[in-house]
Amino acid sequence: MVDTVGIDLFLGLDLGKEFHHAHGLTGQGKTVHDRRLPNTEPKLRELFEKLVAKFGTVLVVVDQVANIGALPLTVARATGCRVAYLPGLSMRRAADLYPGEAKTDARDAFVIADTARTMPHTLRAVDRDDEALAELTMLTGYDNDLAGEVNRTTNRLRGLLSQIHPTLERVVGPRLGYPYILALLERHGSPARLKKLGRGRCEVLLKAHGSRKAHHLATEIFDALAEQTLVVPGTEASALIVPGLAAQLAAAHTQRRQAEQEIAALLEALPLFHLLTSMPGLGVRTTAAVIVAIGDGTAFPTAGHLASCAGLAPATKSSGTSIRGEHAPHRGNRLLKRALFQAAFAAIGCKSDPSSRTYYDRQRARGKTHTQAILRLARQRVNVIHAMIRTGALYEPRTPDDVDLAA
Asked: 89, 331 in Cβ contact below 8 A?
């Protein structure tokens, strides 16, 4: 939430790659600026400085904070403007309140400015001027892209192995995250090549690339190879495809490890990192996602505001005498919600702090599904996270009797 008291001019920017459209409204709703704006530092600086000199306190509101929104926000801060973010979903819902069905840059810029002027509760603070946080945002986005690449390549590789040799896939498929399996497939990516390699040399290769159970694994692989004597059509072509996919997957895993090291180094400079990682379930990647989404956390006056931002605050659906109970909303920051969900899932297996498992088990006993129980646990943990941010206190393990079921 953004405090708009004392704002003299609301400048809405509908962002574009080469040009933005800027619409300026006074506090009384009078249009004082409405034109296209080149996405260059000199032009942005010229406009912002002119408006600040003429009107005083200017609030620049954008609908994207990254990518094409990075330069306008940087220039706005440098010229003394305040900045805010209108989330895309809020923008689309607000646009429905205005007459007309046209979808133009000029109309969108006006909607952004007028929504900021009349409905400030829809705005979010943009506190990403810290260089470490900006770099963290970029690195976590890169890591998310790599994670998607890992999933896609893994699924394609497992699908190909299942097609030509299902028994072999059952052995190596679940182990595609290990470098020694990828090294084996990269060099000997077909059943015929593996048989030609031989069990002894296979064991040596696995051991050389880090396998501590190379003998056992080599035995499993060659037992699987022995179970299928027929050659499935397409197997020869797979000898060309499998090594390439294995190399791509190994490279993606290496890049993810490097990205994680860089993310961890950046997080060390942020006080919130040590606070959040004291809580079971929050690791480097999930903590980075949380910090990227909430900044220093001071923009959320209550735990309910933080839960709403994450899409974890239940919404009641009722009409007349019909009440359909509470349901998880579809709005909110999806990356933040996923990070909190993953952290909650990891926490139920933490033996040093059994309270999360106790809460989960009680929700399952009440008839909740696995996913519903995890979401409720994530919502309950938001209360704890907010309290930790507010007080600056590290997480303290709780006993099962301390678990509050009133999530």
From this structure: yes
Considering the entire predicted model, what is its pTM? 0.71
pLDDT tens digit string along 173-190?
999 999 999 999 999 999
d(CA 41, CA 48): 10
The H-assigned helical ranges of 173-316 are: 179-187, 191-197, 199-208, 214-227, 235-267, 271-276, 284-294, 303-309
Angle, vertex CA 398, rays to CA 393 and CA 400, nearest 5: 160
pLDDT bin (cut points 50, 70, 90) of residue 128 is: low
For residue 385, give the nearest of 267, 270, 291, 269 by alpha carbon.
291
CB 285 within 8 A of CB 263: yes
Alpha carbon separation from 110 to 21, 25, 307 (Å, rounded): 9, 8, 30
Report the DSSP pairing between strands 9-14 and 19-26.
antiparallel
Cβ contact 360:402 at 8 Å = no
DSSP letter assigned to residue 62:
E
